[in-house]
Design brief:
Layout (H helix, E strand, L loop, with lengths): L1 E17 L4 E16 L4 E18 L5 E13 L6 E16 L5 E13 L5 E11 L6 E12 L3 H5 L3 E3 L2 E3 L9 E12 L2 E11 L2 E4 L1 E4 L3 E14 L4 E14 L12 E9 L5 E10 L2 E6 L5 E6 L2 E13 L2 E8 L12 E2 L4 E3 L1 H4 L1 E4 L3 E2 L6 E7 L1
Parallel strand pairs: 1-23
Antiparallel strand pairs: 1-2, 1-27, 2-3, 3-4, 4-5, 5-6, 6-7, 7-8, 8-11, 9-10, 11-12, 12-15, 13-14, 15-16, 16-17, 17-18, 18-21, 19-20, 21-22, 22-24, 22-25, 26-27
């Protein structure tokens, strides 16, 4: 049985400014990732860094109308012996309009357009249009419809992760020849008070999937299904959430089932806010049956099923001061044995404390406010 260890570190610096013309947000982020795979035959390691800079400006131009413009820059870099990197520059604009009196109630229309320029991939335009209506005659009823496109380039790990050895043979992981995914998605939703129901339909060209290493699935893959959710304050101090997703189809253009896509998933959580500074939360996730592949020692393959497990996590956060919060988490409270990818064991029950496991969110804020101008400066790590 192979095992994997993942370490992640996130740091961000944020700036917030408000005046009579616009609301401006700017940020700088750094994300560091370390992954180690161990088996009886070999150990492989991967280290990567993602640096981000960006800003956006929200400019109102009438009651219920605004435009959002912005730009961002990302650099993806592999830090180990395989020195690889690429960068992405993006600009975007989004327009939002809100109208009243159309068939009774309130109608909101949003259109978005984005352009991405990559150092090692083709440049691409993507966009989205959405329509939402809050009904007047049936209080609590909201309907919406959305259509959008997306362009997803491979990650550093998918491109350059070193190969692993198995029984004296080398098995690839990263694939430098991966093509980006292009996606077309559609969804329609109906919500009534605390309950919502959505149908989604997604088509993906060149879907990136892990088989023997990362590869593109040939042609157009299709995923569609239903999602039902319920959220309610069951008392003054308790918040309850649950959602259920069912996939009608998850297959490639030849009708083969996509790997590791559970037909049914359920997520539920309950949060307690009865203490003045302490928040407690309990969440559970059920993953239903899903298809996977076994890679046998003779290099043949056979089909298998994974899934059918439930994970329970406990979280707590405490507000030390106005600008400082401590957060802790116990993952896999029931010590469930499960595999996200067949043959790779995942973490047993663990308490997230100390440098590697406890997450500390520290907010250092400087407010310089006067009349219509306000600035916020914050650091998160």
């Amino acid at each position: 049985m192979a095992t994997s260890t993942i370490k992640e570190n996130f740091t961000s610096l944020n700036f917030h400014h408000v005046d009579s013309f616009n609301t401006l947000n700017a940020y700088a982020k750094r994300s560091k990732f370390e992954r180690e795979f161990k088996s009886e035959f070999s150990n492989t390691n991967f280290k990567g860094t993602v640096d981000e800079l960006g800003f956006n400006s929200k400019i109102p131009y009438g009651e219920g109308h605004f435009v959002l413009v912005g730009a961002d820059y990302k650099k993806f870099e592999q830090d180990d012996s395989i020195a690889k990197d690429f960068d992405n520059k993006g600009i975007f604009i989004s327009n939002h309009n809100s109208f009243t009196g159309i068939i009774g109630g309130k109608t909101m229309l949003t259109e978005s357009l984005r352009y991405d320029s990559y150092s090692t991939f083709d440049n691409e335009f993507t966009g989205k249009i959405g329509l939402k209506h809050i009904h007047e005659k049936i209080k609590g009823l909201v309907t919406s419809i959305n259509y959008g496109t997306a362009y997803t380039v491979p990650t550093l790990y998918q491109l350059y992760a070193p190969a692993s050895s198995f029984g004296g043979f080398t098995s690839p992981i990263g694939n430098a020849n991966l093509a980006p995914e292009t996606t077309k998605s559609f969804d329609i939703s109906l919500a009534y008070k605390d309950f919502s129901l959505s149908y989604f339909n997604t088509k993906i060209d060149n879907l990136i999937q892990y088989t023997s290493g990362y590869n593109n699935v040939k042609g157009e893959s299709k995923i569609d299904g239903l999602e039902a959710s319920y959220s309610s304050n069951i008392s003054d101090n308790f918040l309850f959430n649950i959602n259920y997703t069912y996939l009608f189809n998850a297959e490639d253009e030849e009708g083969n089932t996509l790997l590791r896509r559970a037909e049914s998933t359920v997520n539920a959580s309950i949060d307690y806010y009865g203490f003045s500074k302490l928040h407690l939360g309990l969440d559970a996730s059920y993953v239903g049956n899903r298809s996977d592949i076994i890679y046998n020692p003779d290099f043949s393959t056979s089909d298998t099923d994974t899934g059918n497990y439930t994970l329970i996590n406990f979280t707590a956060d405490y507000q030390i001061t106005k600008d400082m919060q401590v957060y802790g988490k116990i993952e896999n409270l029931s010590d469930e044995v499960y595999q996200s990818v067949y043959g790779y064991a995942t973490s047993p029950s663990q308490v997230l404390i100390d440098d590697e496991t406890t997450l500390y969110f520290m907010f250092f804020s400087l407010w310089l406010c006067h009349r219509t101008h306000c600035h916020t400066f914050s650091l998160t790590q």
